[in-house]
Every structure is written in structure tokens, then in C-alpha cells.
Amino acid sequence: MGNEVIHVEVVGKDAAKLQSFYQDVLGWSLDTNNPGGYGMARWGDFTAGIGPSNDGGPGHVTFYVHADDPQGVLAKAEAAGGRVIMPLTEVAPDTKVALFADPEGHVVGLM
After folding, report:
1. In terms of residue numbers, what domain contains 13?
2. Residue 75's CATH number
3. Contact 65, 110 (CB under 8 A)
4. What is the rounded end-to-end Cα distance, in angstroms, of the chain?
5. Would residue 2 count as lying in a domain?
6. In a domain, 84, yes or no
7. Cα(48)–Cα(28) distance, rounded to whole angstroms?
8. Looking at the 3D structure of the chain, how many domains does it have?
9. Which H or E run includes 53?
10. Strand ranges (DSSP E) for 13-82?
11. 98 SS3 class
């Protein structure tokens, strides 16, 4: 299967409360040992991240898809009525992400 979901991100106003919620409810073990305190849970190649929303806004859930050709996926999204939210950007060594919105505004990430 191509373009598998590899990461889910939950962000909101109170990251610590969200992290505690998912730890308590789902039993996730979150590693927050990083400068931003972003909580990461890992299961093989799949990860979930829980942290603060960048703008202090109400938050959202985004799923990230592995794409061998992220530029091609972004072009297809635009051709199908979506829009690029964030172009392909290096966010960590060996990690590039992009974001696009579907025609109704739901955001999908690419890694």
C-alpha cells in the first residue's frame, strides 16, 4: 500500500493536559525529552505527537502520510481542488514535512 499514515499529531492550548489525557485514557507512554516538551509515542514506524498549538489557538488533529514524491502529491492536491498550506520544509535532520488542505479545509501532512 502506498502513502501510509505514519504520524498523528494532536495539538491544543494545554499540551500538558492533553498529554496527561492520552496517557491516562489510552495508556500511551510519551517521551517529552525535547526542547518544546512535545510528547512522542512510538509503535514501530508509527508515531503520535501531542503538543502545544503553534499559535495558541484551539488546536486540531492532523495525520501525516509518508510520500515518496511529496511535491507530486502537493501538485495532485492542488489539481484536485486542495491547497498547499506549508511547502516541503525541513523540520529536523532527515525530516521534511509539508501540509495541504483538502477542498473542505481538512489539513493533511506529508513526511
Report:
1. 7-60
2. 3.10.180.10
3. yes
4. 16
5. no
6. yes
7. 9
8. 2
9. none
10. 39-43, 46-52, 60-65
11. strand
